[in-house]
Amino acid sequence: MDATAYLARIGAAADDPLAALMARHLETVPFENLSVHQRDRVPLEDPALVEKIVDRRRGGFCYELNGAFAWLLGALGWDVRCCSARVATDDGLSFPGDHMALVVGGSTLVDVGFGRFAVGPLDLDSRDEQPDRAGVFTVRDAPDGELDIVWHGGTQYRLDPRARSLADFVPMAWWHRTSPTSPFTHALLASRLTPTARVTLSGDLFIETPDDGERTEKKLSVDEQLATYRDVFGIVLDAVPPALCPPD
Fold it and tell me: Beta partners for 141?
């Protein structure tokens, strides 16, 4: 595995600050679940994750994106650990390991695998409001030493800051790839940041959410979807794969 090739993939330099590395990753490597619907079982192991993102020029979901980025940061000399998080839903908090995030340097939250979220690092030691390109974030203390990551007043997820291995996330990654109740098995999704907006292809709907404007939506034909995957997300497909678990 080659850190130089990874840096070239995201258009960054080895001596870039953490915020720049994070932003470049978010702008070049899409959050996407196509592997789920292509039945492409990518092992949660450093070589497989880096190969998918760098050599195959694909994206992934949280375990893949943050797992690969953790490898890159470690290769560049950063102190980084993988951490478990429970996502906030209408019914409360999800299962432990439902999401994987990174803690760098002991107290800095970095997350390139949560879709629409903070663009820059967040200070886990601060309880003040932290302005970010995506909005205002706050860290709040939660029971048992965990931390709630709050965006515009709403909890996004509860972070357990203890170090985990990639292997710890294998069961939940398998569940997300296979379960009819997983949000990732119902429809195809690709999303990435641009310098001025977030662009998303959800099923056949192309969505653009500017930083300072109104969200727009456009329904795409199959040919337009394939062109959008290629031109917007860098994903070349022969055909749009069917949903693994089509909704009723």
Answer: 147
Q: Are 113 and 31 a contacting pair, CB within 8 Å?
A: yes
Predicted TM-score of the model (pTM): 0.96
Distance (Å, rounded) from C-alpha 234 to C-alpha 196? 18
Residue 26 pLDDT greater than 70, yes or no:
yes
- The answer to whether 125 touches 107, Cβ cutoff 8 Å, is yes
What is the phi/psi pair of residue 54, to 5°? Answer: -90, -55
Measured CA to CA, the distance from residue 87 to residue 58 in angstroms comes to 24
Catalytic residue numbers, as ranges: 62, 99, 111
Element (H, E) at 202: strand 197-202
Report the pLDDT value the prediction gives residue 83, as an integer from 0 to 100: 98
Provide φ and ψ at 192, rounded to 5°: -155, 165
Strands 130-132 and 122-123: unpaired
**Following DSSP, what letter does each residue of 147-159 receive, concatenated?**
EEEEETTEEEEEE
SS3 content of the chain, % helix, strand, coil (to 5): 30, 30, 40
The confidence band for 248, taking pLDDT boundaries of 50, 70 and 90, is low
- The 10s digit of each residue's pLDDT in 159-212 is 999 999 999 999 999 999 999 999 899 999 999 999 999 999 999 999 999 998
